[in-house]
Specification:
Length: about 240
């Protein structure tokens, strides 16, 4: 994934407002990166642009060899459906669907066959198979986020975007959810882009980007805990599945 000279400007009652200012970013396949900064630094805006949920005022974005910024809205939606997963702070589960049906939804929308089998396996992976027929209001916060993680990974995304995934969880539940997120990321070889205020969490990634006033001011390597997880989940011959 690559972003080049990315800017986002909007009009406010006080006049033009620059939310992102010529941001350059490159993330390798299978890499985990964190974007940190204070509220208003532009973290979530950057994530939305990278994921194709919004369009920049200026600049270009590529996912693999596809230029997202050259696609129309339908093209971006198709790219997201095939190659992108999301985990949000507020879970974004559909209240009228069971846990299993929530995980099945992206598969059904993309026309995949045997969605129920794949969704059930994803719930089994996050330890929620016994809760498959429960509705969101019957699940705890941690269980809801685990359903959201299962839904994100069930489409086998090339890139997973996580925006403050532990923001609505207590510390212990949040740690369990993050451990699960990194484990599944490691096992799948998915690229992980994580937005967080939590510097300890950010340092588990391969690299950390620090944002201030719409710019990436600096980058540093993480502590390697996420890389350590990947090392323990590689196959016996050291190989990992290639991502698109």
């Amino acid at each position: 994934m690559k972003a080049q000279a990315l800017s986002k400007k909007v009009t406010s009652p006080e006049g033009p407002l620059t939310i992102l200012d010529r941001v350059d970013l490159e993330v390798g396949r299978g890499e985990s990166v964190a974007i940190v900064g204070t509220s208003g630094a532009g973290k979530s805006t950057l994530l939305g642009l990278l994921a194709g949920l919004d369009v920049p005022s200026e600049g270009r974005i590529w996912l693999g060899d596809r230029e997202i910024t050259a696609l129309d809205e339908d093209g971006r939606a198709a790219l997201r459906a095939d190659h992108v997963g999301f985990v949000f702070q507020s879970f974004h589960l559909i209240a009228s669907l069971t846990a299993l049906e929530n995980v099945m939804l992206p598969l059904e929308l993309s026309g995949k066959h045997d969605a129920a089998t794949a969704a059930l396996q994803a719930l089994r992976t996050v330890g929620l198979e016994p809760r498959r027929n429960h509705y969101p209001h019957q699940l705890s916060g941690g269980e809801k986020q685990r359903v959201a993680i299962a839904r994100a990974f069930v489409v086998e995304p090339a890139v997973l975007f996580a925006d403050e995934p532990t923001g609505n969880l207590d510390n212990r539940t949040g740690e369990n959810v993050i451990d699960l997120l990194f484990r599944m990321n490691a096992e799948s070889g998915t690229t992980l882009v994580l937005v967080t205020h939590d510097h300890e969490l950010a340092n588990r990634c391969d690299r950390v980007f620090y944002m201030e006033a719409g710019r990436i001011e600096r980058a540093s390597p993480g502590t390697g805990r996420a890389r350590d997880v990947r090392a323990t989940t590689d196959s016996g011959d050291g190989s990992r599945a290639a991502r698109p």
